[in-house]
Amino acid sequence: MPATSHCVALEAIRDVAALTAADIVCGLGERSCADSARAADPPFCREHEITRVRWRLSAEFKRFYSVEQNYSEIEQEKILEVLNEDQSGLDRYDITKARAKNVAEWVKKNGQIKALADIECIEGFTERNTKKLFKSILEDKPKTQNLSKKIRGQILQPNLSESVRQCCQSVLAVYITASSVCWVFINRSNYELQQWVYHGIDYPEGKKMQITDILNIAWKITNILPRADIYVTKAEATTLRASGNDPGNAKVLAVNLQKAQLVAMIVALINARHLDWNVSEDETKISQKVYFLRPTLPFRLYGTLVGNERVSTEQTIENLLQEVSRNEAKNQVKVPEHLCTMFRQQKDLQKDMLGHCLLMALTFMDICVYRNSDSINKLLKRSE
User: What is the pTM of this model?
Assistant: First the structure.
């Protein structure tokens, strides 16, 4: 067993050596424990001290041997390879930054780690956190980094908790305009589109829409939406004012108000149908099922924004569908052929709405659910 593998054990050996040397100097034959001023207190007797240190030495050797006995030779080689290869990348595994730094400093000072027990010679390591580190290395499960946190500003409202993200098996993206509602239903397990639908809204001609009329429309739409674990829609503007040179245009304000009412009702109805009616009366908040995605993210990720102007999504979607059919990209959504055909048979306006809905859905899946590093890095690069 290498000497470097037993730091604590070596300390115990030095203790024994020091005690023996002291006893030789004073002469155990001439000076007994009874003659010592400390003899009245048995724990301080030389013989008791030597026995205690020997027990400590035996315990340390057993502990260090047990560390290596828990792993096969192949497992030991894999762990040592990771520890010695690149200490700067250790924080990918189950280890704190401080301990990773201590490993790097120890290797720099003492050379490569030659045995598993060596790691307990490094400051900050205990038997427990050493086992956790070794386990994460052997299972080849580096800690996942949430790169989406590097994106400036809030990308989702409310925040998507880790427990909800892990348990999510299906996502429904809903894209709402004043005249239509589109939705995309995605199965998370295989990243496949199962529904991609355009639904036009028919308003009675010549009739002024009342709040009850809008509620009826919202109710009908909500009833035909498939159920999902998570719903996502576009975060709406906080003002009803029109953009451009005429922000106070009465017609535009009326349309924006009607759309805002429709969105609010659909969101409320979706949350209501998932509501647990057995909750305590003391509950002041409902469990949110609908998440609002920052509207500029799909434009930036897929390049459908030129300056401040949106361009048609038709060509972007067509390119995407062709890539999917050729399986050109990894971690890419699967789109069944019948849905591709459906999209290509639509009119230009319907294609654009379906395109916006799909890009919103894919952005949410890649950034918030799968945390695809390529997509996140693309966003970060385009924001520079």
Answer: 0.61
